[in-house]
């Protein structure tokens, strides 16, 4: 039975991806900072393992108990909705530690096993925000653009050893707790001078009709993992698909 490790399974996309792979008969290692089965389907093939992607000792401990990993999904991430002047640099550093360095550290940690077996796939969850510039998202977008650049370069090194790396770019998914978690962890202290601008922008976001669901994301991850011909970049959700096509990306 193939085995997948997914980061950030305490909520949102992580749970949907875990459920999809369990349905398809995979062994799922659902990792999260505070272990809980809440939101995950009961299954003999599900293992919950504590993992904080920013802590090397946590990564080492998690991988020491998982055995061979056939697929890794770097899903853990945090957002930040603020203009640059309102953002604390310490918070930006924390965000990059999770979104960028956490993704690199996890990929680096599973790579020796995959390289030796000459097989494996790493899927990094980026975002459709990387497909066009958006205000009040500069730091978050920069982190996901870094994930894109990292993944595309790393994929060239890994391919030599039969290991694939792919990107999934979800669109906006208000059904997850992403926005709430972002504000809780990163704050949203918008400077007064930008107040009206940010309010107007948030209104336009709320009025956009095309939205991404967790199902769209789990479908895209499934394809990225199981289809050896899957393209490097898979948009997930109607809004992400529309943006991707506008930027000249082939319909995936
Ligand atoms: N929702 C959207 O609109 C959207 C759109 C595009 C891309 N994305 C990306 O999709 C991914 C999942 O987002 P989501 O919508 O499912 O949001 P979510 O519900 O907030 O889930 C994020 C997950 O990341 C985990 N996490 C945060 N810091 C971590 C750390 N240091 N170590 C391990 N896990 C950590 C969280 O766990 P804790 O409970 O421990 O904090 C949580 O399980 C993220 O990478 C996000 O950037 C989301």
From TrEMBL:
Keywords: Oxidoreductase
Keyword Lipoprotein in record: no
Pfam families: adh_short (PF00106)
Keyword Membrane: no
Tree of life domain: Bacteria
GO molecular function: oxidoreductase activity
InterPro entries: NAD(P)-bd_dom_sf, Sc_DH/Rdtase_CS, SDR_fam, SDR_oxidoreductase
Family the entry assigns: Belongs to the short-chain dehydrogenases/reductases (SDR) family.
PANTHER family to which the protein is assigned, alphabetical: SHORT CHAIN DEHYDROGENASE, SHORT-CHAIN DEHYDROGENASE_REDUCTASE FAMILY PROTEIN
Protein name in the entry: SDR family oxidoreductase
């Amino acid at each position: 039975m193939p085995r997948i490790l997914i980061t950030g399974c305490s909520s949102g996309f992580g749970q949907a991806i875990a459920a999809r792979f369990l349905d398809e008969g995979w062994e799922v290692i659902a990792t999260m900072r505070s272990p809980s089965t809440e939101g995950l389907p009961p299954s003999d093939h599900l293992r919950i393992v504590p993992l904080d992607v920013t802590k090397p000792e946590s990564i080492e401990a998690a991988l020491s108990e998982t055995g061979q990993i056939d697929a890794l999904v770097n899903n853990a991430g945090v957002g930040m909705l603020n203009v640059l002047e309102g953002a604390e640099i310490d918070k930006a550093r924390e965000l990059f530690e999770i979104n960028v360095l956490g993704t690199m550290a996890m990929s680096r940690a599973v790579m020796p096993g995959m390289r030796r077996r000459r097989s494996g796939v790493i899927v990094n969850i980026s975002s459709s925000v990387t497909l066009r510039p958006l205000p009040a998202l500069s730091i978050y977008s920069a982190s996901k653009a870094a994930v894109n650049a990292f993944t595309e370069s790393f994929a060239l090194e890994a391919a030599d050893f039969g290991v694939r790396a792919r990107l999934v770019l979800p669109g906006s998914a208000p059904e997850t707790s992403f926005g709430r978690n972002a504000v809780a962890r990163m704050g949203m202290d918008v400077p007064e001078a930008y107040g009206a601008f940010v309010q107007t922008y948030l209104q336009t976001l709320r009025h956009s009709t095309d939205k991404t669901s967790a199902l769209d994301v789990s479908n895209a991850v499934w394809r990225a993992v199981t289809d050896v011909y899957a393209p490097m970049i898979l948009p997930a959700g109607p809004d992400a698909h529309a943006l991707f096509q506008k930027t000249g990306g082939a319909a995936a």
